[in-house]
Write a structure and sequence with these properties.
The protein is of the alpha+beta class and 355 residues long. The protein is 44% helix and 12% strand. It has twelve helices and nine strands. The protein has helices at 2-9, 13-22, 64-79, 120-137, 150-163, 169-190, 229-232, 240-254, 267-284, 289-294, 301-322, 345-348, and strands at residues 27-33, 40-46, 51-56, 97-99, 102-108, 196-198, 207-210, 213-216, 223-225. Strands 1-2-3-5-4 form a five-stranded antiparallel beta sheet. The radius of gyration is 21 Å and the shape is globular.
Length: 355
């Protein structure tokens, strides 16, 4: 695995073209990297001058079965004419190839841009589009992809951070108390909430707008989870305007699929799960030079102090909205929270194109 990871980190356009050609697809000498941290993604020009996206998966993250489950979901969506970027078949009929223990695939290229914000009509249309996606997603369960829960997003991250002594001793207990408190609340509120396959990372950076047409991108994080995860990420704010637009989204969604309004109680716990997952993700990937360039201040005392304060604030929000007692991993310092604070995409989405 170490050797495969070293090869992955050392991918160059020449090696990308060689891998694609080895699969039986003829290329021109045009290849350049696209914005991606977790995987390595390149735009490649084929012999006929059409262009595709070549995606090389980070070794050790997903198994072949898990990747193919994503491809199968995309094929189902394409069959139902849900606009997504479909995965191409190689000449042998497969959608996944491997070179040097690195899996890779080819996808259709789509032009357009990520919307900076959603107008009222786009809010409603995106809600309808997500409902169409969820109608397909709920038809059968994922076999190989895991679920979105506190174990995966928080508790596993905390174990890794602890084993690698990632936090300063002076801040460790506060961070762990806040994170475990959010995990406890998330576990309580998730009871009885329906789950099915979801995109799981549907922020606006993964929505493409072109000629007034919306397309859903990047299903790499596909999991089993609550439908509301694919709602709050596109409209992450707590302010009144974000809440108003979220209702427009729900209005479009309900045109094609029922939405359990009570599941909205999961939005703040899910936000907390994502915050911890983000910090754990950065820590686990810090060996990758791209991460050191992208987040030069990660890991110092100031970084973790801000993370502790933000996480304690989030725990207060979670407990306040859930009306839970203060006995659940009470942090050492209480923080007053303004529910009207406007939260933007840059606050939560580390692969946001505008960063």
């Amino acid at each position: 695995m170490t050797e495969a990871l070293d090869l992955f980190l050392g991918l160059t356009p020449d090696r990308v073209l060689a891998a694609v050609e080895r699969s039986g697809v003829r290329c021109n000498t045009v290849c350049y990297p696209l914005n991606s941290f977790e995987n390595r993604v390149y735009e490649v020009e084929l012999e006929g001058r059409s262009r595709v996206v070549a995606k090389f998966y980070r070794p050790g993250r997903w198994s072949a079965e898990q990747i193919l489950e994503e491809h199968a979901f995309l094929a189902e969506l394409e069959t139902e004419e849900v606009p997504v970027c479909t995965v191409r078949h190689f000449p042998d009929g497969s959608t996944l190839q491997r070179i040097d223990d690195i899996y890779y695939s080819l996808s259709d290229r789509r032009g357009g841009r990520a919307p900076d914000e959603l107008s009222d009509p786009l809010c409603r249309r995106l809600g309808t589009l997500v409902a169409r996606m969820h109608n397909v997603a709920a038809r059968h369960a994922a076999v190989h992809r895991p679920g979105l829960d506190s174990e995966r997003y928080i508790r596993r991250a905390l174990r890794w951070l602890d084993e690698h002594q990632s936090l300063p001793d002076s801040l460790r207990r506060r961070y762990f108390d806040a994170a475990e408190g959010i995990a406890d609340v998330a576990d309580l509120l998730a009871v009885g909430v329906d789950t099915h396959r979801i995109h799981a990372d549907l922020h606006l950076g993964n929505v493409l707008l072109r000629d007034d047409r919306l397309t859903l991108l990047d299903f790499d994080d596909m999991l089993t989870g609550p439908a509301v995860q694919d709602v709050w990420l596109a409209l992450p704010g707590r302010d009144s305007e974000s809440r108003r637009k979220r209702e427009l989204f729900f209005g479009g969604y309900r045109e094609l699929r029922d939405f359990d309004a009570s599941s909205a109680r999961l939005i703040e716990p899910l936000r907390g799960l994502r915050m911890v997952r983000y910090a754990g993700w950065l820590a686990r990937r810090w060996h990758d030079p791209a991460f050191r360039l992208g987040w030069p201040h990660f890991g110092d005392d100031d970084y973790w102090r801000r993370e502790v304060e933000d996480l304690e604030e989030q725990l207060n929000v979670v407990k306040g909205q859930a009306r839970l007692p203060a006995t659940i991993h009470e942090p050492e310092r209480r923080v007053e929270v303004d529910s009207e604070i406007e939260l933007t995409n840059k606050d939560y989405f580390w692969d946001w194109e505008g960063d």
